[in-house]
């Protein structure tokens, strides 16, 4: 009968090493394997030094990064070279142009407005938000970047012509709510008797034109003056607002108050219910 002891003795007589059992045998082999693996990985481990950023003008990559006043942009080489005489195209080919620590082309300009410069280089046109109000600053940026087409587009998009007269116009009205015999069941929402216009005479004439009534102004022969006696020939307040907006005026302030009087103050054709809802509103418009 063969026992484990006899097998071990036979291996010793034969001169071969008996197989080891337990952790010691496998651990030794594992340690040697780890040693060899560790040596190999240590030899193949890359250097911890980072590669240096090449100059953007010499880099073969088509996507380039820019730093404009601390705001970072990315664009293609073809976009920046679209206008050969522009500053971005010249800076791309100039190895001495300032760059930041990461090799990005640096422009010490307004970083937010540069988005419109980049849009112009991409599309060849200009599209501004409806609430955009920095036309003069953007025109200055276009002039700095040597983009005469963009500068002309900005000036055309400016709703405020450079030679247009600045000033303010105040529009006011006294109104009420017209009621029928059944009270609120027959309400007509709003009843305006007259829309008043106050401001410089030349501005008021420029905005309202033929809709302006000057019959109550005693000094209608003089132009370079102010008046508070103009009123409109119609009673549509929204029409007056549209005309002011078309001429570049912006609403800056408004106020309103109730003007209800007693029953003894009723005018012919005005009932007590209308008199309760009398009110006066004013709106101040400014053109810069």
The end-to-end span amounts to 115 Å
Overall structural class, as computed from helix and strand content, comes to alpha+beta
What gross morphology would you assign? Answer: elongated
Q: What's the total helix number?
A: 10
Whole-number mean pLDDT: 77
Question: How much helicity do the residues have?
Answer: 25-40%
Detail the poorly predicted runs.
7-60
Describe the structure.
- With 288 residues, the protein is an alpha+beta fold.
- It is 34% helix and 22% strand.
- It has helices at residues 4-14, 23-44, 77-80, 87-93, 114-123, 135-144, 148-157, 201-208, 237-246, 272-276; strands spanning 63-68, 71-76, 105-107, 167-176, 191-200, 212-213, 226-232, 250-258, 279-287.
- The strands form two sheets. Strands 6-7-5-4-9-8 form a six-stranded antiparallel β-sheet.
- A hairpin with a 2-residue loop joins β1 and β2 (71-76).
- α6 (135-144) packs antiparallel against α7.
- The longest helix has 22 residues, at 23-44.
- The radius of gyration is 42 Å and the shape is elongated.
Describe the secondary structure blueprint for this structure.
Blueprint: H1 4-14, H2 23-44, E1 63-68, E2 71-76, H3 77-80, H4 87-93, E3 105-107, H5 114-123, H6 135-144, H7 148-157, E4 167-176, E5 191-200, H8 201-208, E6 212-213, E7 226-232, H9 237-246, E8 250-258, H10 272-276, E9 279-287
Parallel strand pairs: 1-3
Antiparallel strand pairs: 1-2, 4-5, 4-9, 5-7, 6-7, 8-9
